[in-house]
Structure formats: C-alpha cells, structure tokens
Amino acid sequence: MSSQSTNTLQSFNGTIALAGAGKMGGAMLTGWLSGGLEAQRVVVIEPSPSPEIAALTARGIRLNPAASDIGALETLVVAVKPQSFREAGATLKSITGPTTLLVSIMAGATIASIAEVCGGAVVRAMPNTPAAIGRGITVAVAAKNVSTAQRTVADALLRATGAVEWIDDETLMDAVTAVSGSGPAYVFLLAEELARAGVEAGLPAELATRLARETVAGSGELLRRSETSSATLRQNVTSPGGTTAAALEVLMGADGMRPLMTRAIAAATKRSKELAK
After folding, report:
1. What is the pLDDT at residue 29?
2. How are beta strands 62-63 and 42-45 bridged, if at all?
3. How crowded is residue 62: how many other Cβ atoms within 10 Å of its Cβ?
4. Which value, to the nearest 10 degrees, does the dihedral of the CA atoms of residues 208, 210, 216, 219 take?
C-alpha cells in the first residue's frame, strides 16, 4: 500500500460499512486495519461471520448492528455475492444516503444497477484473489457523481489489497473481469497442467507438482520485478534449437496458446456481459 493510501485511511473520520465479509471482503478489511484505519470506524454486515471476523469485535469493529444504530454512512463497501445483492438491497439502502460513497466489488453488477438498488455515489471495482495476500490488482470506474475526495477514499480502500488501475469506460469491465478477475484461475490451471505433463514424462507426482508450483511462482515474481517485457523474458530463456524452443513450437503453433487464450477470454467476456443483464 502506498504511503498516500495509508495516510488517507489513518485520517478517515467517518464510518465505513462492509457488507459481505467473505474471502475478498475479509481480505480488504484486514488490509484496511493494517493500513491504519481505526477499527471503531468499521461496521461489518455479515450474516455468517467467520471466527476471524467475529474476533475483530475485540478490536472495536461493530458486527451486524441494527440499521438504526449505524446512522448516516460516508462509505459503504459492498462485497456480497451478486446474486444476493437485491435481497440485501433493502437493508443497504436504509444506510445509504444520496452522497454516500458506495464501492462495489460485485462481478457483473453495473453502476446503474447498483445505484438503482441503493443510490449513492458508486464506484464499481473488480479485484482478484491475490488480494488475499496483498498482491491483487483491482480495476475501478467511478460514476459521474463521485467527487475527487471520494475517489481518493475509494482508491485507498482498494489499494489495501494491491495495485489499482482506474478507467473511464465502464464497458471495459467485462474484459477486465475476463483477464484479471478470472486470470488467477488460468495461472493455477497452468501449474496444474504443467505438473500433470511432468508426470506423463516420468516424474514422480510430488516432484512434478513442486516443480510446477515453484516455476510458476518464481517466474511470476521475476516478471513483477523486471521492467523487461514478458516477450523478451521468454526469449531470454529460449536457446535456438534447444529444449525450450521445441516446447514453444508446440505452444505457439497455429492451434497453440494464442488462439486458445483468445477464445477463453472472449468466452469469459461474453459471460460477464450476460451476467450484467
């Protein structure tokens, strides 16, 4: 988290309500508290809180208070499952005013649909699961009635779990969901299939799994730390006529990874658009 984001959280004077404290919501809450947000300023609305979330009441967060006890909210973060949103909408609307900053991380839920149910000044965001270890990336888009100050608060809240990119065109969110929102699953599949292929080549399963996991993790860290493009990093590993070149001839062939990934992202983008309707 940047020092600016930390300062924003430390200086926040209002009440922040978190609706939905599952894996992603819980990860965000942990990041906020680690970034200096006072626990006494946090309200958590979660019908089935985990022991870890329930334990935070000892630090001062308010867990499932009556809506009448919450009062006017400056900020509401909605991390419920999209299919549960309309059911929870009546409760959320009762604590949302016209100027409440509402940050949504619900996949597929548009700014218009969120505003219709709850009102407020809406920021729509799409994080991904590495947020659980503070290494996520979130893409966000703000409604026109979100002020500069509110956008700063939203940025600080989202940056608690990793990097944040802002866009102006909400229609890009379907492709964002397909690339970074769903992307960790593709990487995990790569590790899974790399290990399986290693077993097919004769490696013991345990060794193949460890080699695949560490190779994917190490390569990802190298990519993160390097300013070199991914294409150049790939080329640096590839000796002409060597083993890597032989494998890449298959992976980069006419029916290899490029057309396969293009179809996969297109399918995920299409499904995201369908879910938004």
Report:
1. 95
2. parallel
3. 18
4. -110
Q: Is 16 exposed, middle or buried (0-12, 13-18, 19+ CB in 10 A)?
A: buried
All residues at 6 or more sequence positions from 127 whose CB lies less than 8 Å from its CB, including other chains: 24, 28, 105, 136, 137, 138, 158, 161, 162, 181
Please count the CA atoms within 13 angstroms of the CA of 69 that sit on its side-chain side.
9
Nearest 5°: phi and psi at 64? 55, 50
Other Cβ atoms closer than 10 A to 124: 25
Q: Over the range 22-42, which residues count as b (16 or more CB within 10 Å of their CB) and which as e?
A: eebbbbbbbbbbebbbbeebb
Distances 14 to 83, 85, 116, 150, 233 between C-alpha atoms, Å = 29, 24, 24, 12, 46
Q: Which two tokens stand for residue 124?
A: 């729509």
> How far is it, in rounded angstroms, from Cα 135 to Cα 184?
12
Q: Which of 270, 187, 196, 267 is nearest to 230 (CA)?
A: 187
Residue 237 backbone phi and psi in degrees, to 5: -85, -15
pLDDT score for 107: 87
**Low-confidence stretches of the chain (pLDDT beneath 50):** none
Q: How far apart are CA 275 and CA 277, in angstroms?
A: 5
Q: Can you give the pTM of this predicted structure?
A: 0.91
The whole-number pLDDT of residue 71 equals 74
Given its phi and psi angles, is residue 211 left (phi above 0), alpha (psi -120 to 50 degrees) or beta? alpha
The backbone torsions φ and ψ at residue 42, rounded to the nearest 5 degrees and listed phi first, read: -110, 130
> Is 45 exposed, middle or buried, given 0-12, 13-18 or 19+ CB atoms closer than 10 A?
buried
- State whether residue 156 is helix, strand or coil: helix
